[in-house]
From TrEMBL:
Top-rank taxon, per record: Bacteria
Name of the protein this chain belongs to: ABC transporter ATP-binding protein
Pfam family, one: ABC_tran
Keywords of the record: ATP-binding, Cell membrane, Membrane, Nucleotide-binding, Transport
CDD domains named in the record: ABC_Mj1267_LivG_branched
GO MF term list: ATP binding
PANTHER family: CONSERVED COMPONENT OF ABC TRANSPORTER FOR NATURAL AMINO ACIDS (PTHR45772:SF9), CONSERVED COMPONENT OF ABC TRANSPORTER FOR NATURAL AMINO ACIDS-RELATED (PTHR45772)
Amino acid sequence: MRAILEVRNLAKAFGAFQVLEDVAFQVQKGEIVGLLGPNGSGKSTLLNIISGFIAPDKGTVMLDGRDVTSVPTFRIVNEGLARTFQLPIMPQKMSVLEVAMAADTTMHGVLPTLFRGAGFCKAERDTRERAMQLLDELLLTRVMHLPASAISGGQKKLLGIVCALMARPRLLMLDEPTAGVHPNLRQDIVRALHRLNDQGMTLVIVEHDMHFIREACNRCIVLDQGHIVASCKPEELASNERVVQAYLGA
Ligand code: ADP
Ligand code: MG
């Protein structure tokens, strides 16, 4: 079976600091993969490269068998890949619902603006409905009319997930989805992610919370010192020597 995501020989340095040296892994369609590694091991950098925010020095990113290395982010989104951010930044003046609606990439561009006829109104209605449905799934209905800048850090994370989902991705990558989220909400996020997975979505999740990883993921890959050092089931992490070494800094 062809991998939905394949990363080959990826390397990236910031100045003299070689963050990623030779990173290679595959993700199969339908998997929920946890991406782990100590602080500063390059997890966010890896997501930034895969999603086209920064270019690698070396290596290839293949999405569904197509080379998307250094393809700009807005194009990669149209190829079916979306991601969320470790620290989401929200517009000051827009409401939660407006931010979610603005994330619908099919609503942008010159054509829809020029032809603001019946078709456009229907498209806008559909966008609004889908945004409201996703806000409901991610438990944000109660705050949907508040300014997006006024909601809690955890709620901003959830809104980030909603925005990523508005683009209808086949592959969704999440950067620390539960950091700063109230513990009561974590189970709800796991449930929402499993529901998306049941609908066919593939997920890559950067996360530190081991409980969350065990509940959410089928497989984990571990990044350390510029390489993938392990690929195993969440329950096998604690007995994997290279994983233990990575976290103890040995
Ligand atoms: P992680 O997400 O695993 O904690 P990051 O990918 O954020 O790690 O960062 C890996 C390393 O690269 C860190 O040492 C960080 O300081 C450095 N780094 C990340 N982005 C930049 C950048 N734009 N310029 C310089 N250094 C960076
Ligand atoms: Mg990070």
